[in-house]
Backbone:
């Protein structure tokens, strides 16, 4: 996960050329000109997308565009099931809230931060913090030539645990429209069963377009906006690929933890993954049942289910892979080597840092278990209940009529926010009935939010009775209750409301745990800074890359098969033959659309087929990715687009903690399958005509 701005300094460009790259460093990243970097950006809030035409066309994953597809879907227009193909630009759908972000500029500010620490303007601990970095970024922006330009947002971040700092100037476009999406039977083929698995046959793509004002600058949606004339777009290769070919991915990996100690990995397994697996599993079971029974609820909860299940299964796979791949043993060996290095360097900070980290983890581990459980149940899974009534209560106590009027209007907006088109009160009630008692099984009584004492004392531990009363009678539970309260709002009614008592208790518990962890994590951050600096020194002259933090990175490798265990070998690509082999009309995850089946059976693949007449779907590469890389472009040695990254393989889900080059694979969608679906199934030849195709 190499930083673009350090490729020359770290000689990573030389290593890429040895692997087969035919481009120069400035073709990839040019701080003074246009490069491949300018065709890649952040799609939405957590994925990568790439520009594939001179007129702002974006390619990303189907699962990255899923929220937008669901947003536009209804029982009458079920784009999740049927797909969406804009036949012309006037049919492209405005998608409120969706943004696309380019990286305009990157600058090293390490010396500036260190000077502030040396001058005692800030402490070393403060240099890591959001408030300081946000203030610094804004100050630098105010002095920059980018000040006042549309869409520019600065962001300062620490790297290598605070041993280096960079500021990123982002250019954000906020008129992004939906152009094309295959039906979920293609875009999510294999569903939860195939997630993180190989062989894969998922057409995981969707297409959007950036619109801009008359000057090509970012602007909010307007009918007069026009497609962005992009300064860089990716050429698309139809030349195909073979095992051993060079492959690189540019994108925005979200988060890795490659520098953890053994104790920290155990904490990740036991305090984060274990409770997440148990809680999400219970919620997903409820959602699956209600979604299968109703198309309306299926559409409402499609995105929530997908988002929750993805890292539920990831957590299961990570814990398994940590054991199977002996990651703990590998990290223990690293600690032994580091101890010897520290003694040789006669560096007392290095000598004691691992034991100091371990002592901190002994304190944070039980707190993180509580914190994960609290967030997963009461902030991620159960949606009903908010704290909005507390501000109205303050106005009522003050008897401030004008403020009461303002707070009542805010309350109406809050009610609409709770009861939005993607919320079903009865579904949420079922989730609450599953999770309230589960949380009690997982967390001792003295550590639970205070609402549990109310349940024990007033409801004799009957969770169903408490939940039914809260979901039936609370002010925000339904329109009738809400309207009756608004007609005559009183402090007494607010104080008696169970949802308010519940909300206050969960926020109190959250604040208490967050405060305890914040204090411990300040010291832990400084220890990590020391440990990572030492590990990187120990590796020299071999360069090191920093952990992922959703900033632009480049990973290089090769197209490659793998053998995960004795007697098992996986080919490096799949074809549409596998789609028909997996077909099961009785299982929603493996339904094959009639039109696609007809095309496959007739081998009607056009110019996108392999020389033997088969149609490629997905392929494997040795690239290093994680969440956030979804949708990233996979590029060949000439910087041409050959695929779209969308997943990792099951056997190496410990890769966020320890990258294993022999086992870790990136699962990519072959660009030829994307074009085949667009052309033959979506009748979107007009989109293909926009693209630069290399035969």
Residues:
């Amino acid at each position: 996960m190499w930083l673009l701005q350090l490729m020359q300094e770290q000689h990573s460009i030389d290593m890429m050329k040895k692997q087969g790259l035919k481009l120069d460093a400035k073709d990839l990243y040019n701080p003074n000109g246009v490069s491949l970097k300018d065709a890649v950006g952040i799609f939405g809030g957590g994925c990568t997308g790439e520009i594939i035409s001179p007129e702002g066309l974006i390619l990303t994953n189907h699962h990255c565009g899923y929220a937008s597809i669901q947003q536009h879907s209804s029982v009458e227009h079920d784009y999740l099931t049927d797909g969406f193909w804009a036949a012309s630009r006037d049919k492209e759908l405005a998608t409120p809230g969706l943004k696309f972000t380019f990286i305009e500029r990157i600058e090293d500010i390490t010396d500036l931060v260190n000077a502030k620490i040396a001058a005692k303007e800030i402490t070393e601990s403060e240099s890591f913090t959001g408030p300081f970095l946000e203030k610094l970024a804004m100050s630098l922006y105010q002095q920059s030539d980018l000040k006042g330009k549309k869409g520019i947002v600065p962001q300062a971040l620490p790297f290598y645990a605070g041993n280096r700092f960079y500021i990123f100037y982002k250019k954000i476009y906020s008129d992004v429209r939906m152009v094309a999406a295959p039906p979920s039977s293609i875009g999510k083929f294999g569903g939860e069963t195939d997630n993180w698995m190989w062989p894969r046959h998922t057409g995981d793509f969707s297409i959007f377009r950036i619109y801009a004002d008359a000057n090509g600058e970012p602007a909010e949606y307007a009918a007069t906006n026009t497609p962005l004339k992009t300064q860089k777009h990716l050429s698309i290769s139809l030349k195909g690929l073979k095992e051993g070919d060079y492959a690189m991915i540019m994108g925005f990996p979200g988060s890795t933890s490659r520098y953890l100690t053994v104790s920290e990995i155990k904490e990740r397994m036991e305090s984060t993954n274990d409770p997440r697996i148990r809680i999400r599993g219970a919620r997903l079971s409820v959602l699956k049942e209600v979604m299968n029974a109703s198309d309306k609820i299926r559409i409402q909860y499609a995105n929530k289910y997908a988002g929750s299940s993805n890292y539920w299964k990831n957590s299961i796979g990570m814990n398994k892979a940590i054991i199977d791949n002996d990651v703990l043993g590998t990290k223990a060996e690293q600690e032994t080597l580091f101890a010897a290095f520290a003694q040789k360097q006669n560096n007392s900070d290095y000598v004691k840092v691992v034991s100091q980290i371990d002592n901190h983890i002994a304190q944070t581990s039980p707190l993180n278990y509580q914190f994960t459980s609290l967030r997963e149940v009461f902030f991620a899974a159960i949606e009903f209940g908010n704290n909005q009534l507390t501000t109205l209560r303050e106005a009522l106590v003050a008897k401030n009529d004008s403020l009461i009027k303002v707070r009542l209007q805010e309350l109406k907006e809050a009610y609409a926010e709770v009861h939005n088109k993607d919320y079903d009160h009865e579904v949420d009630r079922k989730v609450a009935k599953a999770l309230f008692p589960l949380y009690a099984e997982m967390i001792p009584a003295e550590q639970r939010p205070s609402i549990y004492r109310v349940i024990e004392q007033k409801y004799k531990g009957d969770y169903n009775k408490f939940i039914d009363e809260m979901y039936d009678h609370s002010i925000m539970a339904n329109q009738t209750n809400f309207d009756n309260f608004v007609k005559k709002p009183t402090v007494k009614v607010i104080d008696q409301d169970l949802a308010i008592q519940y909300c206050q208790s969960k926020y109190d518990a959250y604040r208490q745990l967050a405060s305890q962890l914040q204090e411990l994590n300040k010291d832990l951050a400084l220890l990590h800074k020391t440990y990572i600096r030492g590990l990187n020194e120990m590796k020299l002259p071999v360069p090191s890359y920093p952990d992922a933090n959703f900033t632009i990175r480049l990973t290089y490798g090769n197209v490659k098969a793998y053998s995960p265990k004795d007697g098992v070998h996986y080919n490096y690509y799949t074809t549409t033959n596998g789609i028909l082999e997996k077909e099961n009309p009785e299982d929603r995850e493996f339904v094959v659309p009639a039109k696609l089946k007809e095309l496959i059976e007739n081998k009607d693949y056009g110019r996108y087929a392999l020389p033997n007449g088969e149609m490629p779907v997905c392929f494997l590469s040795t690239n290093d990715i994680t969440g956030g890389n979804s949708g990233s472009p996979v590029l060949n040695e000439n910087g041409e687009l050959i695929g779209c990254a969308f997943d990792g393989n099951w056997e190496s889900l410990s890769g966020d903690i320890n990258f294993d080059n022999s086992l870790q694979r990136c699962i990519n969608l072959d660009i030829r399958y994307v074009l085949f679906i667009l052309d033959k199934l979506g009748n979107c030849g007009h989109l293909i005509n926009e693209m630069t195709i290399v035969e």
In short: The chain has a mean pLDDT of 95. Residues 262-523 form one domain. The CA atoms of residues 51 and 233 lie 5 Å apart. The longest strand covers residues 164-173.
